[in-house]
């Protein structure tokens, strides 16, 4: 996970720095080109401001140039003043050596920027220049009679390498600094990812300890975002541990319970009992073992539900159970009514729901006079949790005295010994409810006047 996040973030960072570098590079090239143009224009206007003509037509250019490089031969910055045909043009000292491109006259107030234009340097190597030209005119007093206008054009040129060197220096600095920034950001990003994923590594470490048996459960010291995960793991571990203990206890109890009937049979065989006595004893002990097996299987059926199960609709299972019970108790004419809220579901195994409803409804049918009411509604809710559930079964039977409720809920105890049954149905319900961490409450029914059995299941994980 850390490697994938680091790779994705690194690719994003590299792409961002590359786009940022490209944008900054293009911006600098555009700005540098505009600065060069403005600089050449300023030099040209400076020459225009200082140019004068003598009466004999000779041109006067100030001795101090706007930039010392104009006086350095081959400096890369050149100035040329072009005069009408037949008159000698003026060139700065820097033009000595290189062969500059041919210049033409421009109209007054006409400006031109061109480049790069080819030139031949003193060494004979080809080169290029950017050229800015401006057309101008000077008024000359030709005598006491008239004044004449003298047109001329000023060209200022600069080697293309000057701009290229500036761009090259800038690019070297730009990509160098961006590279350093990228390395620093990658290191910082690695640190942040390791720091942010540290709680997950702690969870993995604790989970390994639980798997190795070095710890019984996950600790409670985890960030709020990981708390549902650790709670689910703890619930799963506890559920599996409880299921294993329950299965072991069930098998141990079953083996222990079967020892006595088997010992009795062994004793009767060793005592050479008559065939009639032996047949009667075998029948008695077989029925006893059958009851014991049914008891232990019922106990095992109340454990081992899946912790993360799909929601189960309640009404179809309830209808199936009630149809069977109505046939069994057809002589009593008991009617079962449903009040099930829309959208209410049971989050668990379908077998658990059938066992829960089957025992509660069978108990209600057994004691009811004519009516049974099944109610299902939503229970408590918590953020990011499955909703709880409330199941209520009412009957119009004799009810259960308050002082006998705890007694009736004991395993193997029947409310009335005259009524057929094993006395483990309500105990199975208790075990099931307990396995879902719910509550079973018994009391009088306000609606029907008999007994009320209410199962409250808390919000799930």
TrEMBL record:
This protein's record includes keyword Cytoplasm: no
Pfam families xrefs: HATPase_c
CDD domains linked: HATPase_PhoQ-like (cd16954), HisKA (cd00082)
Stored InterPro entries: HAMP_dom, HATPase_C_sf, HATPase_dom, His_kinase_dom, HisK_dim/P_dom, HisK_dim/P_sf, PhoQ/CarS-like_HATPase, Sig_transdc_His_kin-like_C
Domain HAMP: 194-245
Main location: membrane
Swiss-Prot/TrEMBL catalytic activity: ATP + protein L-histidine = ADP + protein N-phospho-L-histidine
Name recorded for this polypeptide: histidine kinase
Originating species: Luteimonas notoginsengisoli
